[in-house]
Structures are given as C-alpha cells and as structure tokens.
Amino acid sequence: MLAAGAASPAGRLRYKIRTYGLNISSSSHLIVANLTLLGQTFHAQGAVPKLLLESLQLRYPSFSRRSLGDYRVAAATVLSCAASPAPPPAPAAGNWSACVQAMGADGCGAYREKNAKHCEGCARRIAPQRDNVCFPQFAANVTAWCESGPDSARSTAAGKSCTANESGYTVYNVSWFGSDGPTLQYSGTGTRFENCLFEQVDYSGHDMDTTRGLGTAMIIASGGADDVFKRNTMRYVGCSVVYFAGVRSLSELNHCDHQADLSNDGSCIQIRSSSANNSVARRNWATASAKMAVRLDSGSNTAFCPGEVNNTIEGNVALLSHGFELKNDYNTYVGNLALRPFDGDTTGACCTERQPHRACTSHGAHSATLFRVDFGRFASENSHSLLAANVADSWSNGSLSGGVRDKSRQNVFDAKVGEQLRDALNHDFRPVAGSAVDKAGAGPYPRAAAHAESTSSTAAGGCASYWIPGRREWRATTPVPPTGSATARPDDLDLMFLGALTGRAGGGDAAAGAQRHRVHFGAAAAALKPLGNVLEGGCNVQAVSAPGAGAAARSALPANSTWFWRVDAVDAQGAVQAVGEVWTFTVRS
What we know:
With 589 residues, the chain is mainly beta. Helix content is 8%, strand content 27%. A hairpin with a 6-residue loop joins strand 35 (516-522) and strand 36. It starts with 19 loop residues before the first strand and ends with a strand.
C-alpha cells in the first residue's frame, strides 16, 4: 500500500491477500450458504450447474489498485457457464535464456508491448512455463490465455449462450457492498436472482479498460434467456445500467434508488434489442435516480424489427428519475407511472447527498419527457403496441393518440397529475378518490384492484395490502412515508411497510412475506403504543389518526407535528420475532 505522506501506518492493519476466497468448478447442485467474504469474492465458472448461493455477504468484494499505479479494471465476482480457458500447451523442453531476448525478461515480451496493462498478470501466468514460452505452439496461445484467465476481469465470455441444465443458478438473499468496477460478471440461462442487495457498487464506473458507447452495467444477462430478477434492491449504484435483461426474462418487484450518472446512457432495467422478445418488466420502482426506470430498445432506428416483440412493461414507477423509453412495435405498456415535479436542481446533488425528494439530473440536464414512447423512427412504430392506464406528468406527443387503446383504462397525462395521487413524494402512489386517475383505473395502484381498506386491519375485516418492491430483510423495512420525511400528509394517512423475510430460496414471494406484524405509534420514540390489531400475513397498511380520535374515526394529525413508529414481526401467537427499527416523519404545514 501507499500511505499518506509515505508514513508508516499506525495501529492494526487489515490487508487483502487474495482476490477469490472461493473458487467453484466441476460441481453440480452445490449449495454455498451463510458466509461472509471480506475483501474477496467468489469465482464460479464452467461446469457448475444448479449452483445455489444463499445468504452470502460480500463486503468490499473487488476493488482496483489505482493507488499502487495499477489502473486495470478490478477483478469481479464471476458466475458463468462459460468454460474456463485451458492453459496453453507446452512442449517438453525449451531454452529460457533464448527467451529473454526474444520475449523479454518478464516472460511477456511482445504481448507486453501490445497491451502493457495486462503484462503483470500475463507474466505470473506463464512463469511456471518459462522454459517453454519460446516454442511457437505455446506462444501462439499465451495472449488469449493471459487475457481470459481467472485473474482477468474478462474471464466471462460475454454473451455466451448455454442451456438451463448447464447453468440454472439461484442467487438468493446475497448482498454486495462496496465493490469497485464490475459487480458481477454473469453468463447463463434460467437463473434466478432474488432478494439480493447491491449497495454502493460500481462507484468508480470503471468496468473495462477500453472505451465504448454502451456505458457500463452491474449485471449483463442479455446473452441468456428465461432469467428471473426479482425483489432486489439497488442503492447508490454507479453504472449505466443495473440489469441488462435477457430473452423471455422477468424483472419484477425491484427497487433502484439513487442510481448515479457516472457513465454514459442507461437505465435501471434495460431490455436490449438482442433480448427484446417476450421479456417482462413489472412492478419495479426507480426513485431519485439519474437514469431511466425501464428502457426497451430496438435494433434499428429506421425499420421494424420482427424478432423484438411481445414485451410487457407494466405497473412500474419512475419517481424523480428519468422515466421510460419504449421502442419498436407489438408490445404492451400498461399501468406505468412517471412523475418528477421539477425542483430546480440542475446539479444532480441528490444522487450523492441522499436527498429523497429531489430529482436527479442526467448529464447535467433534465429530460423533457418522462413517458417516452417512440412513434416516428419508422412509419408503423408502436402503432400496434397497447398503451393503457399509464400516468405521467410529461410525455411524448405520440403517446396522446398513437398505439392501441383500451377505452376501459384510459391513460392520464397531465402536468399536475401528481396532485391526483395521495402522497406520491412520500411513496403513496394510490389515486385520490374521484380523481381522473381513480376513475380511469390508471397507474400501478388502481383502486379497483386493491384490497378493501379497513381501520381494523384484520384478515376477517378485509385488511389492506400495498405492494412495495425491493429486498425483504430480517425485519420490516421501506417505511411509507419514508423515515425522516418532513412532508407527510396530515389527513387520511396510512402507515405502510415491506414485511419481514421468513422464507428461503424457492419459497415464493407470498411465503417470504407471510410474517404477521404489529404497528406501534406515538409522539416519542420511547412512548410507542400498539396501533390497531395485528396485521395478518400479506397485510401492510395501518390507518392513522390523531390520538383520542377513537378506533373507528380518522382525524388529521396536527401540522408540523413529528411522529414515531415501529413495526415488529410477530408469530401466530403474537410473540415478537423481530423488533423493528424506529422510524419518524413530520406532518407538512
């Protein structure tokens, strides 16, 4: 290491001695669970079908050595069905001294001259074969071997296609924190990424050693098919795209928050042209982010692409982000919400200062259109796509009349449509009763599809459910209104949350969130009292009223008053299983 001022560091030092703490190969149906890797990660490549990775914590799994003068991209976590490259064949004998002149003292020689940044790794790889490197049959292979070996950031063959029997991985409840450079290099088919956390990853935007116009990505799954990316949380991610989906993929109930603008272009969920066939992006949130929520690409800017059809973009929320961009034709766009009331921020500071109610900028400027459906790149573009029940405060011109419409679920495009939602800035996207959004049954939370509201919050009384995306934790999370909010509505306020995790891999979302919960509420953190009855499994809405209003009545909370609340997970007998975090909000004036 290089310490500040070249001084000797004081105290105890913890240092990295390896890149990969776990190397996995030639293993079928292996389970790796309940491990924490600090300063290292795993490398699973080749014949590792049906690998299950569950409840792993990867803390600072990969980072560069820039401070040491090594500017190469950091080695990433690898999960790939692509076979590891075999070492180059070596002849039985050789003359090392002759190689010194021919290839250089470090054994890298001509390769070093072409690509100096990889020379060190190359030299390490061929060191055991120094007596053989001059032989043509060895030298012919050394470049490819050094470039694609396990020590290289390019160890995964991008776009490699394989069957579900060759991969079919499950990545469940795994967390990545603090990775520099590419987070996960993946290739496979039929893989399930579920209930994972990606936080403060790819914060340098350095995913490759060369430049290209496509930007960077946290996970590139576009080379495969039939993957599921569900209930994952991505916070403070620096890459262009969080998830490049594959063919026939399902991206559902994911939450992107504060995605930054460190590299070109991008979106939270992006369906590239090569993958735009029967793919679904449904019920995802993108909040306070500098990128789009969902982007559906097309392989041509001038003609219809017949193989890029039957994609569904449904029920997604883009709040204080850059909305949607939807291309080609014969697709379905239903029930999406794009909302970003301009707050004057042109610096993008919200992405680094963690200000949840400020709109993030992209490349220093606000996009004029949040709900963008392309109609003009070729004559019939999106003319056969279904546009129904979408809600936006800015939209492309063609969205007003183009495409196929559903008269029973009209789109609602209005510059002030946020006023028709109960409290959108505090993540309550339900429509105000009697509003145009309500009457049209539009948006991701149509009242007609919701459970009956009830202050009793019991299963028998018809308790309410409000879907909230993202990773489930060991206790209740994702409060609505968000903790620390100073703008909560004073009347008709509901407290909502994402329930605690109870299930394991393969149990399904309903089982994972079936825990019962009890809400506590009060004017001081140390004086919380139970509010209403226990909420049964699947119920996560608790009505609130001013103290003394009575169990059946609802009255407004005083303006500028501050309140505290907590949600405990309880078992069937009411015994507390997980005490919740204390959250707070202040009622707006």
